[in-house]
Design goal:
The chain contains ten helices and 17 strands. With about 350 residues, it is α+β, with helices and mostly antiparallel strands. The protein has two domains: about 240 residues, Aminopeptidase, CATH 3.40.630; about 90 residues, Peptidase M42, domain 2 (Elongation Factor Tu (Ef-tu), domain 3).
Length: about 350
């Protein structure tokens, strides 16, 4: 299975923060043949170990890529059977109206995020987004039937099939951050053809969208010597400043800033140049808002790096990536892991 095929499969599965089970199961199934050990921890993180060569104890390098997605939770069932919902994660109210959704109740229901017709909307209302408190889901059933199938606390996931675009690009939901889960899958495939001296621990983390929680707990448990988070970053599009974005098809963006260990940054750049992997530099003067933020301060501190796959239209159902960037990210990860010498890794914590 290619990275693009893997992304298509996992992007369409439900996996709202705190309820990542279906996508976690698929990731575990795909990663298992490529690693030596794989397990799921109490929080739901999928933790895969690919042992290195050489004498023990070997240094550990953790690759963190989160698998959760944003979505909604049912707050109440209103008169007429409409579902009042609240966001789980960073929902953008500007782009959710009229979206098709799946309500994961006692039985799965198809519904839509309803809206007032423009004919009944005031001029003032037409100039601003619908307030989150006014969002509702319509599943088309009578109220008594809805109450028999749905209850407060049930999840509502956005429904969107992945689409292959021209030029090797793809669009769909939850590419933030399952595009990076696909990059990690590609890295494991590449690493199967290489020798490496460090123990590699690849983690599909949970609950990143609601506070980096899976990265916090898994980094504490893994206790890595080096951590590399893989996420998505802003790709160039109209309205996005050039110095805050990366070019689609230009390879992963390698972050540099206070969240990043300078030697890890330089090492990733050197490996990209040595392996002829296209890359871009992403200056981040503050917090990155990714799993790298949690990795860096785990236990007594971890030398941390961050790779970002350029992505357009973040937190929408038409998130768009270039498959070449996913593959380049995987190649760079595999090359870096194969090139890491145990003494160099250990020296980062001295």
């Amino acid at each position: 299975m290619t990275a693009a095929q893997f992304l298509e499969t996992i992007s369409e599965l439900p996996g709202i923060s705190g309820h990542e089970g279906p996508v976690a199961a698929r990731i575990r199934e795909a990663w298992a043949p490529l690693v030596d050990e794989i397990r799921t921890d109490p929080l739901g993180n999928v933790i895969a170990l690919k042992a290195g060569e050489g004498p023990k104890p070997r240094p550990r390098v953790m690759i963190a890529t989160h698998m959760d997605e944003i979505g909604f939770m049912v707050l109440s069932i209103e008169q007429g059977g409409f579902l009042r919902v609240a966001p789980v994660g960073g929902i953008d109210v500007r782009n959710v109206l009229a979206h098709r959704v799946r309500v994961l109740g006692r039985r799965e229901l198809v519904g839509y995020l309803g809206m007032l017709p423009p004919h009944l909307t005031t001029d003032e209302e037409m100039t601003r987004p619908v307030p989150m408190k006014d969002l509702f889901v319509d599943v088309g059933l009578p109220e008594e039937r809805v109450r028999a199938l749905v209850e407060p606390g049930d999840l509502v996931v956005r429904e969107q099939r992945a689409v292959q675009l021209l030029g090797g690009r793809m669009a769909g939901k939850a590419f933030d951050n399952r595009a990076s889960c696909a990059a990690a899958y590609h890295a494991l495939q590449e690493l199967a053809r290489r020798r490496h001296q460090v123990d590699v621990v690849v983690v599909a983390t949970v609950q990143e969208e609601v506070g980096l929680r899976g990265a916090v707990t898994s980094a504490f448990g893994v206790a890595p010597d080096v951590g590399i988070a893989v996420d998505v970053g802003f790709a160039r599009q109209p309205g996005v400043e050039k110095d805050r974005s990366a070019e689609p098809g230009g390879g992963p963006a390698i972050a540099l800033g206070p969240n990043i260990h300078p030697q890890v940054y330089r090492f990733l750049v050197e490996q990209a140049q040595r392996e002829d992997v296209p890359y871009q530099v992403e200056p981040v003067p503050g917090r990155t808002g990714t799993d790298a933020w949690a990795l860096q301060v785990a236990r007594s501190g971890v030398a941390t790096g961050l790779l970002s796959v350029p992505l357009r239209y973040m937190h929408s159902t038409v998130e768009t990536v270039d498959v070449k960037d996913i593959e380049a990210t995987g190649r760079l990860l595999a090359a870096a892991l194969a090139a890491m010498e145990p003494e160099w890794v250990r020296g980062l914590s001295r």
